[in-house]
Design a protein that fits this description.
By secondary structure, this protein is α+β, with helices and mostly antiparallel strands. The chain contains 3 helices and 5 strands; from the N terminus they run ββαβββαα.
Length: 91
């Protein structure tokens, strides 16, 4: 059985929007919102929440070659506009 976990990515098969370069999803921590969104407590158990971040094929390739952490550092440095599905690739 396969499953997705933190740092995994997968292709969508097509762009999110007709003019979007975002063709992949990255399972990531919700960095812009900090640990208040990432970790929640339900019935005394801690649950980690991840999000699916739309990324471009070039960004996916970069993560595969250099690691997810390296890609996320680029996103931080370049102030990734995660809400803009029509954004340019940052790599």
């Amino acid at each position: 059985m396969e499953h997705l976990d933190l740092g995994h990515s997968f292709p969508l098969g097509e762009s999110l929007l007709p003019t979007s370069l975002c063709t992949h999803m990255l399972v990531s921590l919700p960095y812009p919102f900090g640990p208040d969104l990432e970790i929640c407590c339900v019935d005394g158990e801690h649950i980690s929440l991840y999000w699916l971040l739309p990324i471009t094929a070039a960004e996916n390739q970069n993560a595969t070659q250099n690691g997810t952490e390296a890609l996320e550092q680029i996103f931080d440095r370049e102030a990734l506009e995660y809400w803009d599905f029509k954004r340019k690739s940052l790599v």
